[in-house]
Specification:
alpha+beta; nine-stranded mixed β-sheet; two-stranded antiparallel sheet; 11 helices; 13 strands; globular
Length: 373
Amino acid sequence: MTQAVITGTGLYTPEQSIDNAALVAAFNAWVDAENARHAEAIAAGEREALLHSSTEFIVKASGIHSRYVMDAEGILDPERMRPRLAPRGNDAPSYQCEMGLDAARQALDAAGVAAGEIDLLIVACSNLERPYPAVAVELQAALGAGGYAFDMNVACSSATFALETAANAIRGGGVRRALIVNPEICSAHLNFRDRDSHFIFGDACTALVLESDEVATAEARFEILGTRLVTRFSNAIRNNAGFLDRVTDSDPLAVDRLFVQEGRRVFKEVCPLVSALITDHLASLELAGDDLSRLWLHQANRHMNDLIARRVLGHAPEPDQAPIILDRYANTSSAGSIIAFHLHRHDLAPEALGVVCSFGAGYSAGSVVVRRQ
């Protein structure tokens, strides 16, 4: 059976960024205005006063120091507190297509592959800016890619689920080259007025080129030794926005139309799920944690990553064993583990083993074991 190899990666990083201090200042200004507006109710005990956020709280809770965003001005405006993106007409490139073009071209260049040689293109991310036509098909046309294209959504695990889909298509012989693109505009679904989560997300887009090892020409490549996916239903991470809102007369501005989570519950339930997924996957390949040179984990929370890495490796990870990029990118959903892979793979020696792993809403989790050739 032909083997699938990763031959190129790309990363689009927005030009604008917001550090914790600026985010906290905007949040606290909004809190002060809200508390002043409801001063009488607060004084009467009819309403709880909103609490300030702080840079110390954010770093302690998550390990995040800053994030890149598509629009900082709208987020930092206490009267708006959400990105401001201008509407685009049907004949203009969508935002996600534009992000995807940048990342995809980088990945294609790195792989030495022309867009017309792509047989399969998957746009995989947590939120798509429209139901149809597929952003993947739009991107296919913009790139001049061949074959077929489709969108998929498995929340933060979208990239690894797309990796398995593309790798299986290559192993089956129907596809020689595939392109996966993960355009995440997470700032658009984040409630910047929620103290417990206003700091979590950032924006970015990643891209991966997968090829059959029979046609790949890139000097640096990673063979996919195996993929394993798992899902388990949970309401602990949820977003209820949907196309039925207008017919169910739901409030489009309700809190649950944005990202909501039970953070402590997620930590307790997801960490053992992911640790077991990776450990069992390695065992099925007759490997163990101490065979790994690197873990490229989903970048949501520093404490989760440290715990999962410790359980898989059997010891506290060295910084280069489980690289962290969320300190400056924050949580970029499905793009996070791919950003880590993109930035922290070039120093690995031939035959070095690693795992790309995602986990998030669903619950969903994916493990991809790779070996540098």
